[in-house]
Design brief:
The complex is a heterodimer. Helices cover 43% and strands 20% of the residues of chain A. Chain A is of the alpha+beta class. Classes of the chains: A alpha+beta, B alpha/beta.
């Protein structure tokens, strides 16, 4: 079971093509292991990216140093996954009874 | 199937078992077809809803081609059940099924789906091995023979939009291609994804408008308006390339290029608060509103034979 403790999902708003290109390059950096949920396509469209905990600092520094605005939409992915798993367990118990 | 909870997420075993129950409880309407097997040898099942006749015009619907988009498989289960329970009660659906067959593949990427339950909840692709790479899997929605390999996909096996070594390299894709082409009378193909609340149609691999652009656009407008009536959920719509991005090798471009005029892709809820981790409490509202849009499309297919 892969754990996502401390992973965050960031919503990024790139404002020009240069920033979009930079975001695209990030995906090729395999060490970061980022996972685009909504891909960087064109300025103005939101970009969602799941960033593993170990890459958070690097990614945020890169965004801030290039003045690319972002917000945190999911603070800890694992917390949501735990909730999801719990809901499924509850549902199964109900079915058995 | 009375014990099945439509308001929670389920494993592939639970969904396959529920499908068997649906068939058993509706033998005159629903049957199960195996169209192939996945890379890891799981069966690829399609539910066929038919009231009889030989090689009737057909509507194809698939959910779950991107395995982590759990709301789509859950919506698929709810929708298949809705078709079975509403036939004979809902006049419009009954009229559809009296002239058209519906084929429904709920778990289109079973290996990926099983992997999201066992190992990595965020898995999107298939699970096939890529020669020369330690990264596994191909994006099955970049693997179709429609602009295959273009810049709206990736040649890097470690990237989520990896297009694969050649068109239809993935058995999950090839099985649909073979089934649809051998059927020969599929008039609509609806591929359901999440998230971002959009209804899209060809093309994704080129900017040129599809020959049927106006009709597809008008129908999309009607469908998203119907969808919004239930819970006020706002959808955008248009051709893939104009609405979100250039995407090469995608399902609905292949189907359109192979003569299936009514080719649509949904992106279900939400717009980013939860993404792929949509709470189970939103399954039924999502499925209910999607049903209204699906009905608009299916009614149009019924009333506009070609």
């Amino acid at each position: 079971q892969k754990l996502f403790v401390g992973d965050q999902v960031l919503r990024i708003r790139a404002s020009n093509e240069e920033q979009i290109a930079l975001l695209r390059e990030l995906e090729e950096l395999e060490d970061l292991q980022i996972d685009y949920w909504l891909r960087p396509i064109q300025p103005g469209l939101p970009v969602d990216v799941r960033v593993p905990f170990h890459s958070l600092q690097a990614v945020k520094v890169l965004l801030e140093s290039n003045t690319i605005p972002y917000t945190i939409t999911i603070d800890d992915v694992q917390e949501l996954l735990d909730e999801e798993k719990e809901a499924m367990m509850v549902s199964r118990k109900f079915e058995r009874s | 199937s009375n014990n099945f909870s439509f308001s929670s997420y389920h494993t592939i075993e639970e969904i396959y078992s529920w499908m068997d129950n649906l068939v058993a409880e509706n033998p005159d309407l629903v049957s199960k077809i195996q169209i192939g097997q996945s890379y890891e040898k799981r069966p690829l099942y399609v539910l066929k809803f038919s009231t009889g006749g030989v090689n009737r015009p057909a509507i194809w619907i698939d959910t779950g081609i991107h395995s982590r988009e759990w709301i789509t498989q859950a919506t698929g289960v709810w929708t298949a059940n809705k078709i079975a329970t509403e036939y004979g009660k809902d006049a419009s659906l009954t009229a559809i099924l009296d002239t058209v067959d519906i084929f429904f593949e709920i778990v289109t990427n079973p290996d990926g789906f099983a992997y999201t339950h066992s190992t990595n909840r965020m898995w999107r692709k298939t699970r096939s091995i890529n020669a020369g790479s330690s990264c596994r899997g191909v994006d099955p929605n970049r693997n179709w023979d429609a602009g295959f390999g273009g810049p709206g996909s990736s040649s890097n096996p470690c990237v989520e939009t990896y297009h694969g070594p050649y068109p239809h390299s993935e058995s999950e894709v090839k099985s649909i291609v073979d089934f649809v082409l051998s059927h020969g009378n599929v008039k609509a193909l609806i591929s359901i994804h999440s998230y971002s609340q959009m209804l899209l149609f060809p093309y994704g691999y080129k900017t040129e408008p599809a020959p049927d652009h106006q009709e597809l656009n008008d129908l999309a407008r009607e469908a998203v308006a119907a969808l919004a009536e239930l819970h006020g959920t706002k959808y955008t719509y248009g051709s893939t390339i104009d609405t979100i991005y250039r995407a090469d090798g995608i399902t609905v471009d292949w189907s359109y290029d192979n003569g299936i005029k009514y080719s649509y892709t949904f992106e279900l809820r939400d717009t980013g608060r939860y993404g792929f981790l949509l709470p189970a409490s939103q399954i039924i509202p999502t499925a209910e509103e999607t049903w209204l849009a699906l009905m608009k499309i299916m009614e149009h297919v019924r009333d506009n034979p070609y």
